[in-house]
Amino acid sequence: MKLALIGFGQAGGKIVDRFVEYEQRTGVDVFTDPVAVNTASVDLQGLEHVPEDNRVLIGQSRVKGHGVGADNELGAEIAEADLDEIQGALDDIPVHEVDAFLVVAGLGGGTGSGGAPVLAKHLKHIYTEPVYGLGILPGQDEGGIYTLNAARSFQTFVREVDNLLVFDNDAWRKTGESMRGGFEAINEEIATRFGMLFAAGEVDGNAEVAESVVDSSEIINTLSGGGVSTVGYAAEDVERSAQGGLLARVGSDRLSDRGSDDGLDSANTTNRITALVRKAALGRLTLPCDIQGAEKSLVVVGGPPEHLDRKGIERGRQWLEEETGSMEVRGGDYPLPSSDTVASLVLLSGVHHVPRFKELQQVAIEAQDNIAQRDARSEENLQQLVHDGAEELTSLF
């Protein structure tokens, strides 16, 4: 799937930068002329893989390149005012080669939280291709203002995109982990999961063609209908034998090479793939939720061709159909001849049972009430400070 990729704000830019690094490292060709947009010049300067010509600094007349300070209303205003500047960078993208747009932003800050929904609305007005969002939810320990920003941004962003893919930082930060180390690990998870999703079906002329092709239409159809999506992922290492063949392993348990002409046990291969699909769906999702009730799903199994098995993928797809209660579950394989892992990816679209959103909204309402009470007290305290005992004085104006 070919994507026009735009990172908005600090988190969005860093994730796009990691996507480009993932593309370079794996050799896939997915992201077309990636763009990073920000109000803070230092954040754009810190990017390593997004071309400098594709880094767009907006809001210079308002914030002088210093960011918006977690004020997402200001971020939205600046994005609206500087849409022409952003569009100028997007005009270089060969849209006729693109299957969809992907706008990436952290929802807790100011620039991305406010600007990403504005950009998504603009893109949908200009182009006919689908516009997807990838929104990053802040952790609970990041503070009330970031939670309030995220709740307000989410409400707007999900309305302006064709589908909002969500990654919840709170579900991925490890206890005792440094802030920098935590975000590095999180960005790698994002790149691995969504990189594999969008790379499925994008192969060059020399690559092996999948038995059951997962192409851009499968992804687009799964994401159609709007709403919120989450992604699960599970992988298993494979190692090369002394003779150069591949033997699968789970921990220290290696599969027997008896039972099939190509040296792999087909029954074990089938069972392994089915287990990986279950693990991906029931393990740690990018947005934790109850998968029952998901409107649509997609299963992709990638790895060395000799480790891929149509029967295993079909069994995994049927299991997911029963588990979600949805009749729209697509599936296919993604041959990766040079890979050292077999991986299963599950995309769940249109999920509804998401406890995290209820928590987010509750904390956001409390934060909003606290801010209103603080502002009222602040005005009252100022009046008391200025006027107490100063009845005989007159002001200058």
TrEMBL record:
CDD domains: CetZ_tubulin-like. It comes from Halomicrobium zhouii. One of its GO terms (molecular function) is GTP binding. One of its GO terms (biological process) is regulation of cell shape. It comes from the Archaea. Residues 2-205 form the Tubulin/FtsZ GTPase domain. GO terms for cellular component: cell division site; cytoplasm; microtubule. InterPro entries: CetZ, CetZ_C, FtsZ/CetZ, Tubulin/FtsZ-like_C, Tubulin/FtsZ_GTPase_sf, Tubulin_CS, Tubulin_FtsZ_GTPase. The keyword Cell cycle applies. GTP binds at residues 10-14, 110-112, 142, 169, 187. The keyword Transmembrane helix does not apply. This is Tubulin-like protein CetZ. Belongs to the CetZ family.
